Amino acid sequence: MFPLGSVLLPGNPLALRVFEERYLALVSECVAGSGVFGVVLIERGSEVGGGDTRTDVGTLAAIREVGLDEDGHLSVLAVGTTRFRVDRWRPDDPYPVAEIVPLDEPNDPVDLGPVVRRLEAITDHVEGLVWSPSGDAVADLYRLAGLLGPLDAHRVLAADSLADRAALVADGLDAHLALLRSGWVE
Which of 23, 32, 57, 123 sits in a 20 to 30 Å window from 175, CA-based? Predict the structure, then answer.
């Protein structure tokens, strides 16, 4: 498991710069094995050093590329695949390990109209922002959740229905739109 201060959503990319010994060991074992590790959000604490509090819903990450960056640190590119729930944390030896249960994606009917209308209002304020729906509500909501902050994105990841996810994304876009209109963000 790789606890982070950000959320990995299924279908989204993850770029990591790995330098801690425990995570170098994790990547080495993953590359030699399945090429997959879990990512969970850190609720409290730091990405470096351990002692953090972690969420119980995360995403499996499939490693696509591993290399060395210009500073000699390990550079990892992965993509989110399947969401999961942590059933039980094991001791961190040498890195965090958990027993997980994969979670099915919901397939309830959902109206993305309210989300699209909010996104269109945002594009009126952000030059160059273009979004077109893929026709896959699960993928579209994950893509849009990637625009939100980590706690809001995690709520979307953990939601068990598409209707709940759409409402969470719409609320997050409303908050972003309010900031745009106030001039606090560009």
Answer: 57
